[in-house]
Amino acid sequence: xxxDIPFSKLKKxxxxxxxxxxxxxxxxHYFTGPGRMPISIPVHKGKVKYGYKRQIDxxxxxxxxxxxxxxx
Length: 72
Fold this sequence. Notes:
Shape: globular
Largest sheet: 3 strands, antiparallel
Distance between the termini: 39 Å
Strand order of the largest sheet: 2-3-4
Helix content: 40-55%
CATH superfamily: Hypothetical protein
Radius of gyration: 13 Å
């Protein structure tokens, strides 16, 4: 099973695809963006469980498919 990954890497991926950090409540970092579903990521000691990386990758792929279909 993959290990935890640095939060800074996930944050850069999200920001590169139009999400921005909206707020932090406790350990949860909430990202939002226009036309994007909100994403909540729990961060502990600067690390994030790998499952959240998969969730973000899935959201980015979904966003890319939407953008591709709107260009047709």
